């Protein structure tokens, strides 16, 4: 018997390798599952405040929620510690480790420190989970009861989907996103009226006279959830759109964005600030920074533009019945200076324009009374995905 098996293996080495492969695969799969289950169980245990959860799972580890040594009468000027648990990818210099971030932005409240040193977990007041880089197999094993675990993302839900959402029940205390109903609202930009007019009407007229092209945009993402590309394709049947970026005629180096926009504004009447997703409140910096130039932004997105933009500063593509109707209107505006200049009236009033997220609000919130309020997101998937009401543009 033994002899025949060995003989068979000798004759067909394929069997042997198949067996080894099968065993290795099973083993790896079991190991990965174990790590995953352990993390999830761990997380559930933390969420249940270290109490006995559903039955005795042999994988449950022996950690407990550490009782806080936290007193309400803490000095309001005591520095708050923010731990970046999962890294922010490059380009997010707005949350640098150390104490500098809040000084750089001249924040009203600066007593906050940012760290990425995980050994300081238990002394942290807030733990920031950047959705893009977090992993369900890498969740802290301890949490204190006064600590805020913060769900952080600046991408729209279609670009920040996470397979672990269903395991994140009761995990986060706060949210930090561009959405208006987040605990820490972090929009990509904002405008504030200052009544300091720096605008020159004659100047606008001479700029307008020299313009020769209708619309442009810069885009690196050619196939999007909002289906803006279909909209543009339809629009291009009636109006010339010059596309820059990965999907267009030339790429503007990221360091030269302002120079490119300045050049565009000499030539183009309109800048298409089209978002890659149509979701509630999702308005990116491309809208805010266009306001700094002598071009009218044409917007396409899910934001409440009338609430966040200076009055009469933009044209909303989605409010038109079709790309064709939009094109007719754009020709009207471009050819009539009286009409065109109305879109710049707000500049006479004077506004400061910011086109970066503002980190001050995080430090302020940590020092506010909200910090002492216990709260938790039971179902983060519902809050983030369902309640963002993302949709696609449909040609009808
Ligand atoms: C947890 O459950 C076990 C078994 O059901 C029980 O003996 C133990 O007292 C429980 N511990 C707590 C803290 O409730
Ligand atoms: C906190 O700091 C501010 C200025 O930095 C100071 O005016 C205030 O008195 C301080 N408050 C306490 C309670 O120390
Ligand atoms: C959790 O915190 C306690 C108290 O600080 C510490 O003894 C324990 O080692 C920590 N557990 C882990 C897994 O870090
Ligand atoms: C954000 O929501 C609040 C109410 O929740 C509202 O008062 C405010 O106007 C909203 N802001 C924007 C920019 O939509
Ligand atoms: C700017 O002027 C308007 C109208 O005159 C006034 O309502 C508003 O308070 C002023 N804002 C600032 C920041 O001065
Ligand atoms: C772009 O800017 C970064 C930092 O701001 C710098 O390191 C890099 O060299 C710049 N690249 C070019 C082409 O200027
Ligand atoms: C902007 O325009 C000037 C003058 O035409 C040109 O020299 C420069 O290269 C342009 N900048 C960019 C980034 O295209
Ligand atoms: C230009 O626009 C203004 C303001 O909307 C309007 O009153 C005027 O009739 C327009 N002129 C022409 C020639 O269409
Ligand atoms: C944060 O959420 C956890 C888990 O649900 C909860 O035990 C804790 O009390 C909450 N903490 C705060 C400060 O809201």
Task: Write structural notes for this entry.
The chain has 396 residues and is an alpha/beta fold. Helix content is 32%, strand content 14%. It has 13 helices and 13 strands. It has helices at 2-11, 13-47, 100-104, 201-210, 228-235, 257-267, 285-290, 305-308, 323-335, 337-342, 345-349, 360-366, 380-384, and strands spanning 80-84, 112-115, 126-130, 148-152, 174-177, 184-185, 190-193, 213-218, 241-244, 268-274, 296-300, 315-316, 351-354. It has a 6-stranded parallel β-sheet. Strands 9-8-10-11-12 form a 5-stranded parallel β-sheet. The longest helix is centred in the first third of the chain and has 35 residues, at 13-47. One 2-acetamido-2-deoxy-beta-D-glucopyranose binds next to loops.
Question: Summary?
Answer:
With 396 residues, this protein is an alpha/beta fold. The protein contains 13 helices and 13 strands.
């Amino acid at each position: 018997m033994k002899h025949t098996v060995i003989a068979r293996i000798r004759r067909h080495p394929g069997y042997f390798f198949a067996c080894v492969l099968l065993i290795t695969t099973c083993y790896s799969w079991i190991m990965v599952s174990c790590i995953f289950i352990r993390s999830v169980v761990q997380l559930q245990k933390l969420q249940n405040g270290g109490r006995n959860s559903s039955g005795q799972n042999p994988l449950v580890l022996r950690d407990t929620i550490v009782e806080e040594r936290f007193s309400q009468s803490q000095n309001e000027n005591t520095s708050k510690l923010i731990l970046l648990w999962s890294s922010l990818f490059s380009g997010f210099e707005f949350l640098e480790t150390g104490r500098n971030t809040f000084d750089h932005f001249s924040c009203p409240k600066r007593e906050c420190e940012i760290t990425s040193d995980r050994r300081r977990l238990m002394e942290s007041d807030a733990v920031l989970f950047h959705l893009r880089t977090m992993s369900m197999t890498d969740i802290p094993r301890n949490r204190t009861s006064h600590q805020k675990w913060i769900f952080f993302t600046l991408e729209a839900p279609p670009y920040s989907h996470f397979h672990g959402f269903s395991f994140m029940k009761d995990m986060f205390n706060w949210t930090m996103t561009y959405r208006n109903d987040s605990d820490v609202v972090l929009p990509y930009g904002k405008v504030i009226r200052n009544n300091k007019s720096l605008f020159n009407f004659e100047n606008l007229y001479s700029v307008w006279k020299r313009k020769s092209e209708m619309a442009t945009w810069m885009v690196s993402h050619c196939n999007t959830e909002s289906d803006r590309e279909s909209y543009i394709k339809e629009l291009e049947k009636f109006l010339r759109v010059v596309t820059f970026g990965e999907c267009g005629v030339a790429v503007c180096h990221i360091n030269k964005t302002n120079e490119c926009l300045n050049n565009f504004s000499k030539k183009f009447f309109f800048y298409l600030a089209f978002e890659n997703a149509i979701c509630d409140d999702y308005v990116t910096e491309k809208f805010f920074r266009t306001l700094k130039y002598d071009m009218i932004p044409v917007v396409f997105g899910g934001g409440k533009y009338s609430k966040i933009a200076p009055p009469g500063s933009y044209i909303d593509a989605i409010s038109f019945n079709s790309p064709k109707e939009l094109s007719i209107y754009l020709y009207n505006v471009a050819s009539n200076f009286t009409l065109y200049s109305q879109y710049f009236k707000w500049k006479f009033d004077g506004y400061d324009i910011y086109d970066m997220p503002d980190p001050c609000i995080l430090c302020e919130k940590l020092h506010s009374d909200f910090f002492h309020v216990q709260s938790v997101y039971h179902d983060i998937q519902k809050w983030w995905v369902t309640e963002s009401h993302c949709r696609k543009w449909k040609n009808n």
